[in-house]
Specification:
2 copies of one chain form a homodimer. Chain A is α/β, with parallel strands linked by helices. Chain A folds into 3 domains: 65 residues, Arc Repressor Mutant, subunit A (Orthogonal Bundle); 100 residues, 3-Layer(aba) Sandwich (D-Maltodextrin-Binding Protein, domain 2), CATH 3.40.190.10; 99 residues, 3-Layer(aba) Sandwich (D-Maltodextrin-Binding Protein, domain 2), CATH 3.40.190. Helix content of chain A is 42%, strand content 24%. In chain A, the strands form 3 sheets. In chain A, strands 3, 4, 5, 6, 9, 10 and 11 form a 7-stranded mixed sheet that branches. A two-stranded antiparallel sheet of chain A has the order 1-2. In chain A, strands 7-8 form a two-stranded parallel ribbon. In chain A, α1 crosses α2 and α1 packs across α4. Chain A is rod-shaped. The two termini of chain A are 62 Å apart. The mean pLDDT of chain A is 89. Chain B binds a DNA duplex (30 and 30 nucleotides) through α2 and α3.
DNA sequence: GGCAATCGATAGAAATTACCTATGCGTTAC
DNA sequence: GTAACGCATAGGTAATTTCTATCGATTGCC
């Protein structure tokens, strides 16, 4: 009652009459008569003088109007906020990712489409990214890794071939491509166990029966790159993550389909969230598995 | 729906849970589930993460909460205002009067009883006072005059004898009282036609068959006083309105009951107004005819 | 000066909304 | 492992809101 009464009061006060307010409010005039009557009766306060055919605010009504005007301004703001949220003219999208490679591209596209939505990116390893996702600290994760958790939904975004890279003084550096078999006995520096790239690579050489000579295992892309630059051996990396250098050369592997995949991962239970849907939709138009 | 939904949202957000909010709000928990569910469905926005057995605001929820908090603060203020109006801890009382004689006394008593109510007095002639009353510019009028208008309600407040006043060098000045008959042939200065005092006075001398000699008719108490001071004749005035002066002397009339009455006048249609009722009630305790 | 139009009040009924009880499912705590 | 806790669901009830029809009164127009 209190809300409806105040709303009717506000409308009548602003419209300057019951009939006008009723039209403006989309209700019938007796409704307003009843509601304002109830309000006045409950608090035993006259809010309007019904002077003949005209209504006029009492002093108490004037004071009340000042308050309700502010109140309904806030209400409008709340509804406007919700409306804008629905239309994604505002909101927040928080993304966790292991590297800036793909996520920047995705967020650029999303940002163009929904300029009102605030974007935030948390970079970290895949474990952290997944934990943030599960804890609702992020809405989306961009990962290579695929967790078999049924609570997760992973959408393949893009795949990249794994390439070998060497110093320019290595024989491979002169070639357009190599064959997997060429790696037999090669001194290689590899990623740590658990690396998605390593898993894909080892699967391929295992299937081909090729056995490079592993000289070092390092848990960092950047560190491997340094090691290769210093001539400790050759390395491999996802083509998307290869950083050019004057003394380095990336060489494709011709006869093997070794890929790493970038996935967009969300919580299945949040798949119907509006911002998340919009993000997947935006990203969906960018799918281009190499 | 919108209001109830927002109220439920506000309660859950502040209480930190549906059950706690339900208790605090005096409704059942499913009510809140339904209402917030409806709100979220209507705008397709998640406001809370229902994470296991705990609820947590989403970013959108946090933004909305900031708005609704302000909104409900305004609502509380509005209800508080109405509550205070009911208890007359605030409000306005506007009084119209012809002179400050009685109204000051009444307002002092009213002000002591209802310190929160703002008081205002408009002094003027009785015509103006009545017009202000009819136009709702004042709530109460304090008048001598009684209008026979059925729309008015006049409460007698106090009555005052009409006294004769003279210069101190006039024979009457030495007497404790005079009789009506003593006025026969006296040079008198009288009020204008329509004056309540004049009507009461003439009624009395008419009944007694006494005929003073009217030397002047003036439409102002102050002007009559000046005229008497200058020796143009003797005057009469309501005892309550007599202003002392070294050269003036007021003399009661022993054998006549000539009175003027102070009335508290209100519009009958507003007799049930809270402030007006309170005023009449306060004044009622002060009734003391004479 | 009379008639039509306008505005708010009233009465009674209909539709929508808000709300409750009972219960289920999953998690947390002892 | 069991009990307690917290939110979701289902179905029904109570309360509020709102409607239509009509009246009474005033204002404006001709």
């Amino acid at each position: 009652m209190r809300y409806t009464g105040l709303r009717s009061f506000q409308a009548v006060a602003q419209a300057g009459g019951f009939t006008a307010a009723a039209e403006q409010l989309g209700v019938s005039q007796p409704t307003l008569t009843a509601q304002i009557g109830a309000l006045e009766a409950e608090f035993d306060v006259r809010l309007f003088h019904r002077r003949n055919r005209r209504v006029e605010l009492t002093p108490a009504g004037r004071d009340l109007l000042a308050i309700t005007t502010r109140m309904f301004a806030e209400e409008r703001e709340a509804l406007e906020f919700l409306q804008q949220s629905r239309e994604l003219r505002r909101g927040v999208l928080r993304v966790g990712a292991v590297g800036p490679y793909h996520v920047t591209e995705m967020l650029a596209a999303f940002g163009r489409r929904y300029p009102g939505v605030e974007l935030s990116v948390a970079l970290g390893n895949s474990t952290r990214a997944l934990q943030d996702l599960r804890d609702y600290r992020t809405d989306v994760a961009v990962l290579a890794h695929i967790d078999e958790d049924p609570g997760l939904l992973a959408v393949p975004y893009r795949r990249h071939p794994v390439v070998v890279f060497t110093r320019t003084d290595h024989p491979f550096a002169a070639r357009d491509a190599i064959a997997l078999a060429d790696l037999q006995g090669e001194r290689m520096i590899v990623r740590e166990k658990g690396s998605t790239t390593r898993r894909a690579f080892e699967e391929a050489i295992g299937a081909a029966g090729v056995a490079p000579r592993i000289v070092m295992e390092i848990g960092s892309r950047e560190a491997i790159r340094e090691a290769v630059i210093h001539g400790l051996g050759i390395g491999y990396v996802s083509a998307a993550e290869f950083v050019a250098d004057p003394v380095l050369r990336a060489v494709p592997i011709a006869d093997a389909q070794i890929f790493t995949y970038a996935h967009v991962v969300i919580l299945r239970e949040r798949a119907d969230g509006r911002v998340i849907r919009a993000f997947l939709d935006t990203v969906g138009g960018m799918l281009r598995p190499e």
